[in-house]
Structures are given as structure tokens and as C-alpha cells.
Amino acid sequence: THTTLCHPQTNGPFKRWLRALKNAIKRHGNTKWTNVLPLVLVGPRNTVSADTPYVRAKLVHGTTLQVPGQIAAAKPYSAYNASANTTCLQCKSTRKYTFIISQIIEFLEIAGMFISIVAHHFSMNAKVISTSVVALFSFFKISTELKLFEHHKNEIRENVFSPYHNPHFLGTRGIIVQLMEWPFLDIAEECRTLLGPRGYGGVQLLSYYIGSRSGTESDFWTMSRICNDAGVRLYADVNLNHMASLSTAYYSNVSTNGVVLSSLNRIVNITDYHYPGVPFTKSDFHKFCIVNNSVHAHEIRNCQKNGHPDLNHAQSGVKEKMVLMLNQFLKMGVAGFRIDAAKHVWPKDMKHIFDSLDNLNVDFNFSIGSRPFFYHDVVDMGSDSISKTEYTPIGVVTEYLYAVKLANIINAKSAPLTSLINWGPAMGFLSHQNALVFVDSHDTQRGLVSELSRNRVLTHKERTKYVIANVFMLAHPFGRLKRIMSSYHYLDGDVNRGAPRVNTTDGIRGPEFDANYQCRRVSGWVCEHRWPVMLNMVAFANYFNGRNLRETSVMYFQTNGPNQIAFCRGHAAFVAINNDSERIFSKKLYTSLPPGTYCDIITGGLAPNSDGCLGRHLLVNEQSYAQLQLPVASHVKFKYAHRIPNLNYGVLIVYVESKLREIR
């Protein structure tokens, strides 16, 4: 049995709950458990249409449901009349809901949704509910009181999830940028001059110690004040699983607090598990064992990965020190955390730590009682012994499968571009609400994620394909949170190279910009988040973050061969992608847009403070059709991209905000 695709947890948690319920019934001696399990699943609204989206749940939970004793009768499914219509009624006076089951559920698969119908109400003062009621109930002999999910039209109620799912973005912002190893004061300036004004929602920081080579504690305070004032939230990247190892691979580097790692053992005694800076001693770690077989969850979570001493989170002292560290970040204004190597920590231990944390600091414009946001680094390609869904009750999870599948499709390795019509949970991804999606990360860029095996992700070194991937990610509604990477240069064989430095003893060298506000290559930084196409797509994504997802879902998916696609976002945007290596994408297509002339945001968008267009035009006729002529993409390496003045990415995007003003 499945929940509806609109349900926030989309199948997984309900399946687990149903499985536990089945086992409980079996223990009572009835092997035909389905015969005593009437199942009620009321659809997300009382009308059905083909454009019902799978990407957003509009539910509020908590209303008590009173279940009368008549439902304890154990009739087999065959005894019910499955053809009867049903009605859902609401008591006027009590806000309580009472149902009697007299018909079986009839599931209808419509537009990928499983809609079922529920039966009669038994009350004197009742009326038909005018808006849909979404209820997920399982009735069996001992049922007495359950919870109700109520649908509110055009309103998102996030409290059906844990409090750790809220990233606390301001306004319609919804994009996180990972400024890989940027100095704190440079991040502050970037928030003030670019990230805030151009609509970025948050920054992922790399720091375990607040005082580090990225800056001092005072610098961190300054950064936090400036970024939060600019509307940009901060998320600290922390590792709760292990401490530093004696791996010789790191001896040539410099640690985050400026200590040369070849002399690290003079400060800490790693062989004796002695870390006085925290402090941690041998009793705080698991007994020595090595992760050799990744199919055993116990081994993954209790043994050493790559020689890193593995912390024992069952120890109260370990949890207390974690809480102290995270609370210090919260005091300084961060909105949440990325948990590195999360799959190596038991979820129950993680939740205990999270529940012990302080609320967010209201001095940084957080609501009273707000809880920290968490997104977990869990690599699960679908066959791992540790499932990514184990961590969704305590936060959002990074969806690595998203990056791999998108790269394979754009590289034409596993499927044509037309397969993107099924993009979403049908591809094996987490549900929309639980997924943080991305194209690459600092680990995947360098091939450091062993679980990816031979799968390769796209990076800035293949600029055209990389842009196509990021543009699609930001144009498509799937993925509640989206993260853009901002890198520094490194050679392919030098994966342990750190961020650009002034010299071997000073701190990190900040980025430098050219006349076009792009990072100068000689400074060592890539700054993908500053590329004009990325900035325009952030504005595009933010526009849709403020809109009802039902009205802006993917519709009118059109193709022209295996590697040329187009689709609409409701009646507000038109997207076309040409991933063919030879053919121009030439076809008359339906755009869903009002008639007029639109400016392509990929090739430039609207000119600031004027009525002009910096990119190509698209003329939409009275019937909302347009004749598309989209050239083949220019595939070049990143280091040569600056030599091509009008680099073509093979993508066109127009939307209502890019309509030329003289016609608007």
C-alpha cells in the first residue's frame, strides 16, 4: 500500500509504519493480516485533475480523530462494497472527526496519485467539509484515537515534519551556496554586496573550530551579523563522528586552525586517543575496529573510517561536548548545520544531541522557539545497508543519487534527455520535502566518495554540461532545498590541495574580481555562484519559491528526438534544452505563456534599469506557441571558456518576469 505522492513522506515512512502494524497483528495469531486491516486514505482534494503535483504537501497535523467502536468488527476486504461513493463530514461544534467504515477503499491511479475514498459519518450536527481533508488512517481492532491531516488550499504547513526541517530562509529565498573555505570576512563582504542583493538564501561554511585559518572568532561574529542582516543564513559544516587521524595523506597540509599536521601529535596524542582541546580521552571512543565491509550498519557506525578514531555517542560526556560546540555556533547566529559523514552516527544518538540544543538566537531575526536546521551527508545509491530515509525524521538529506543520475543523463551514458520527464522520486530519490539536491560538492569533485564507484558527477571543469545541469536543477521544482557549489582551482591529481593561501604560514587568500565581477583565475577561485547564468537562475528559482507549487508544476513536457526537451512551469515559465551534439532544436512549441516578446535569461536576461534585453528573444503568439531555434551547445573546458565571448549553453528559459516591458 502506498500513500499519495503528495504526502510529505511519500511512501517510505507509511510503509514502515504499515510493516510494523502488520507484524503486530501477526503476533496476535492472524496470518491473513489484510483481512483485519481496513485502510483509509483520503485524497488531497475532493476533485481530481491530471496536473496534481507530487512535490509539495499541504498538510497540518494534530487534530484528534475519535474512532467509534463499530470499526472493531473484523470483516475481510471482500465483505465490503467497494463501489459505493463516500462522504467526509465535519462536526460544527467540536472540531472532532468521527468516521464509521462501511465501504472498502477503492484506489484510483490518476496522474500518478493514489486517491481513495472513505465512508459515512455518524453525527447529528454535521456538514460536508468544503475543502479537502487529507487523512491517513489505519483501522484495526485496538484503534481508539488517531491523528488527522487537514489540507489547506494555497497554504504550506511545515509542522508535519520535524522542527529540524526548516532552513529559516527569509522571504522566498531558497538556494544555499557552498563557499568552499572562504575567509569569514570575505563571506561577510560577499553577503553584503552580492549574496543578499541577488537573492541567495544561505551560505555553507567549512569550519569545526570557530577560530580557524578562515578567521578569528571576532571575524565570525562580524560575518554572522552582516550576512543575517543581508537576509543570508549561515550553516556550519561539522563532523560529529570522529577526530583527526594519523594518516600520512594529510601530513603535507595545514589543519583548520593553522597547525602543521606533521607536528599534530605534539599537541594531541592520537595513538592514545587523547585530544585535550575538547577534551576527549580513550574512554570517549569506540573500541578499535576498521570499517572493512560497508554492508554492515553496525560496523559503519561503530568502527574507524580511514583510521579516524570513532567517537562513542552512547557516552553522555561525548554528547554533552557536541552540544556545547553546536550551541556556541547557535549563539553566534547560525541557522543550522550540515552534518558531515552522518551515516556513521546512529540516528537515535543524533536526535538526542539535537533535542538538547538551544533554540536559534532571536538576536539574528529568528522567531522565538525556532529550532536549528540540519541537513545530513548520507551517501545512499539505493543498495546501501544504511538508508537515507533513516535520517529524514531529523532533517533534510543530501541526495547523491540526484547528482549522479543527472550527470549520466547529460553525458548520455545511461538514458536520453527525454528521461527527465520522470524526474523525482520515481528515479529513486527521496521525497521532495526531504531532499537537498546538488550537482557537485567538494567531495564529489575530487572523487572522494567511494560509494559512487565509477559514477562521475559534473564539475566546473566541464563548463557547458555543468551549466546545463545547474540550470535544470534550478528550473525544475523537485528538491525542497538546492545547493550551488563555489570552488577553488586544483589539479586533478592534487585532491588534497587546500584553499589558495597568501603563503605557507598566513591565512587563506581571499577572492579577487575582474571588471565583470567574476573571480580572477590568478586568485585561485572559481566562484561559480557569480556566473551571470547562475545569478539569473537564482532569481528564477526564488520567483517560484513564492508561488503555489500546484500552479507552477511541470506541465506540457515536449520532445524533439531523444536529447531535445521543453517543458513549462505552470503558466509562468518555458524551458528548452538542446543536449544534441549536432542538431539545432527547431520546432514550434507550446510555451503556456501569455502572448508577447520574452527575453532569455540564460543568454543575458533583461538589461538592468532599462527596457532592453541582453539575451536572445522569444516571440510567443496569441495561442501561446513559439517557434524555437536553439543552437547546439558549445562544449569547452572551463579554462578556455573566457576566450569565447558568446558561449552557447544549449538552453533557453523565459518566464513572466522576463517579458519585455514595452509589450508587458
TrEMBL record:
| Listed EC numbers | 3.2.1.1
Tell me the SUPFAM superfamilies matching this sequence. (Trans)glycosidases, Glycosyl hydrolase domain
EC supergroup of this enzyme: hydrolase
Keyword list, A-Z: Calcium, Carbohydrate metabolism, Chloride, Disulfide bond, Glycosidase, Hydrolase, Metal-binding, Signal
The Glycosyl hydrolase family 13 catalytic domain is annotated at: 174-541
Any single GO molecular-function term of the entry would be:
metal ion binding
GO biological process terms on file: carbohydrate metabolic process
Which residues are in the Alpha-amylase C-terminal domain? 559-639
- Superkingdom of origin: Eukaryota
Pfam families for this protein: Alpha-amylase, Alpha-amylase_C
* Catalysed reactions listed for this entry: Endohydrolysis of (1->4)-alpha-D-glucosidic linkages in polysaccharides containing three or more (1->4)-alpha-linked D-glucose units
Essential cofactor(s): chloride; Ca(2+)
Q: How does it assemble?
A: Monomer.
Instruction: Write out the similarity annotation.
Output: Belongs to the glycosyl hydrolase 13 family.
Question: Any idea what this protein is called?
Answer: Alpha-amylase
Species this chain originates from? Glossina palpalis gambiensis
Taxonomic classification, please?
Answer: Eukaryota, Metazoa, Ecdysozoa, Arthropoda, Hexapoda
